[in-house]
Design a protein that fits this description.
single chain, 284 residues, alpha/beta, Cobalt-precorrin-4 Transmethylase, domain 1, Rossmann fold, 3 domains, 4-stranded parallel β-sheet, 10 helices, 18% strand, binds iron/sulfur cluster
């Protein structure tokens, strides 16, 4: 069986940077407390946990006596920084530079919209860590919409400025913007803030998925990016299977004379996990 790994899959630079920050601190023997899952990949989180990193909630910070708090790539709301400061703990901020830039843009837009009684709209998943951080830049006044069915949460009589969660599909974002523009009676500003590290991967992963009779997509169950990229694979290759670990692999997939398998994954999928998957499938 020929098993090949997509060379464009794996950590994006934001996630890579956060994992490197955590790994460096752990190597120095520091106690590391990451607020929330460092990456939406259960296997990588397990690996870091074995090296001594704990995943905590912001509420737990008050009970920590020593060690360094780590903010992951998704970014945090301004209130989170205040909580760490109040606890007097050192902070390693591994927020992705792309997300940090987006925070700044939303803050600026929020100040401007406030002066003209306008609204900030965020197209994203309510409750997702990144979206909580984005909305936090607007004192949680931003209107979060998950899809077109929610656009009526917006007041179409007031100015509107729209941003997108970085991992959202740019195509869907565009459709939502058009719907809002049709209904609005006033100015609509919009910014396609989806991350090119994710959106650029869709055509590439589709090229890869088309080239194999069977695709094994490796991704975390909680990863939005994994969902988007897996959907992209499935669109061009119906024989694409989503797995999070080798336990999810079903031998029957390889029954029908499959002699070539492509392994690919999300921006949150570690290289070592795709390699482990490839080695496992080669044994069939
Ligand atoms: S997907 Fe983009 S925004 Fe998100 S962590 Fe990776 S590089 Fe940063």
């Amino acid at each position: 069986m020929v098993v090949e790994i997509d060379k464009h899959s794996g950590f994006c630079f934001g996630v890579k940077k956060a994992i490197e920050s955590a790994s460096q601190m752990l190597e120095l023997g520091e106690e590391v407390f990451c607020v929330g899952d460092i990456v939406h990949n259960e296997e990588e989180a397990k690996r870091l946990n074995q090296l001594g990193m704990s995943i905590i909630k912001l509420d737990d910070v008050k009970d920590i006596k020593s060690g360094t708090v780590l903010f992951r790539a998704h970014g945090e709301a301004p209130t989170s920084y205040k909580i760490i400061e109040k606890a007097g703990l050192p902070l390693k901020d591994a927020t992705c530079p792309v997300v940090l830039k987006l925070h700044q843009r939303i803050r600026k837009a929020y100040d401007e919209q406030n002066q003209q009684n306008g609204q900030i709209v965020i197209y994203g998943k309510r409750g997702h860590a990144e979206v909580i951080g984005l909305a936090g830049q607007t004192q949680n006044e931003a209107i979060v919409i998950e899809d077109e069915s929610e656009i009526d949460l917006i007041d179409f009589g007031k100015p509107i400025e729209i941003f997108a969660q970085t991992t959202k599909s740019p195509r869907k974002f565009q459709q939502i913007v058009e719907q809002i523009q049709k209904k609005s009676h006033t100015e609509v500003k919009w910014h396609n803030t989806t991350c090119k590290q994710v959106t650029g991967r869709v055509p590439r992963i589709q090229e890869f998925a088309k080239a194999y009779p069977l695709i094994v997509f490796v991704g975390g169950k909680k990863s939005s990016n994994a969902k988007v990229l897996f959907r992209a694979c499935k669109e061009v290759n119906p024989k694409s299977h989503f797995v999070s670990s080798i336990e999810d692999v079903e031998k029957e997939w390889f029954n029908e004379g499959i002699d070539k398998v492509g392994i690919c994954g999300a921006t949150s999928t570690p290289q070592w996990l795709m390699e482990k998957m490839a080695d496992f499938i080669r044994t069939f």
